[in-house]
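Re-run with default settings, no changes from the original entry. Doing this only to confirm the output is reproducible before filing.
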Amino acid sequence: MERIFCLLIGYVFGIFQTGYIYGKLNHIDIRDYGSGNAGTTNVMRTLGKKAGFITYFGDAIKAVLCIVLIHFTFGIRNPEIEFLLVLYAGLGVILGHNFPFYLKFRGGKGIATTSGVILSLLPYNWILAVLAFATFMLGTFISKYVSLGSLLMVTGFFIEFVIFGQLGMLNVLPVHLPEAYIIAFIITALAFIRHKENIKRLLSGTERKIGQKKNQ
């Protein structure tokens, strides 16, 4: 039951759409502009860097706050499965962000929220979190594509997650490792699913690079 509760609590946190709310404060539905989603990149391109930063921070911090709540509500009482419960909560936040029911399931692409989930893993395995963020920064810096950097981050996260799990470097009992791997895989798969149009543009060479104007 704890798993289900953590997933549902995560979803409730996830439906707080920072980009959508920020857009409404500026009298627009951000989903009617640019790429049509409520994520950080689209908000930044539509409303500016300040708006993008606020959106990223809001979408990432909601994952952190949710996982802190899970720690004090369920984790302390169930230390042997706390890391697993944190993963369920993180998945819930991403699902809520990507598919908010009150916006007809049209949310963001989940990368800022996923980064918040990964950041929340610092107390459990700081190397995993640092490597994931380093992969994003390096991939984005070299390619100039935020989407590619994001996909490299989640891919690296999953690979490192499995490696660390097999090496006994995750706070998960061996019996729970397959379950943890499945959750990590779903988180990674969601990022790819939500970036399917970006992937098409990357393959065709039409994806916009950082700083590139729309008509370029």
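Residues 2-204 form one domain. The two ends are 52 Å apart (CA to CA).
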